[in-house]
Here is the input.
Amino acid sequence: MFALWNDLLNLIFPPAPECPFCGRPGPPGKACGNCLAYLEGFRREAHCSRCGRLPGKGAALFGRGGTRLCGECRAREWPFALVRAAGPYEGIIKEAIHRFKYAGRRGLAAPLAALMAEAARAEPLLAADLILPVPLAGEKLRHRGFNQAALLAGEVGALLRVPVDRRVLVKIVETPSQAGLTRPARQTNLEGAFKVINAGKVCGRKVLVVDDVFTTGSTMSAAAAALTAAGAARVSGLTVAAARFF
Here is the structure.
C-alpha cells in the first residue's frame, strides 16, 4: 500500500532530477561523477573468484594466478558456479538498496540494474540463457507490494538481452527474514524453501539468478540447489551488493 501511495505522489509531484545514489542534482537516473568515482574504487579491489565478496579488514584471499578464494569458498562447495555483485553492501549502494526495498523507491531498480549489468558484462562466466529472480513468499510479497529481485531481473534482462521468467522459481515455504537471523540460522533457514515449477524451462540451460544482496550466500545457495536438482546446466548469481567477508 505504501509503495502505491509513493508512486502516486511521484506521479503528481515528480521529483527533481538527481543522482539516484547520493541525491545531488544531476541527469535523471544516472550516477553523478562523485558516485561513479566511489564505485570505481570498489571495482579495483580484489574479490573472491567464487562468491564475489570483497575482503574486510584483516581478511585474505588465497590462490594463484587469476583464481583467488575466500576462506569460506575454500572450505565448502556451493551449488552455484559463481556470484558477482556490483559493489559491497555499504555506503551509497547500501543506502540506495534500503530506499528501493523498504521505502518503495521502485524507480531505483533501473540505475541499480545498470550497475549489475556492467558487472555481468565484465564476467564472461555469467553469460546465461535465462534470468530468474529470487522469489518472495506470498505473505512478504503482499506486505511489501513488490518483489525487488523481480524488478531488478526485468531491468537486467533488458540490458543484457536475456529472457526473464518470474514464474519458474517459486518460494513454497514462508520463512523468517534472513536479516534477523544468526549466520548458522541463515544457512538452514531456506533449505528446501524454493521449488522449480516447470523443470523443462531450466533443464540443460545456463541460469542467472538475480537478487539484491549476497550476505552469507544462503538464499542464492538454496535457489541454486533447486535449479540444479531440476536439471539446470549451470547456475550463477548476480546481485546489487555483497557483504564483505571477515
Notes: Strands lie at 62-64, 67-69, 83-88, 130-133, 169-171, 194-196, 206-214, 234-242.
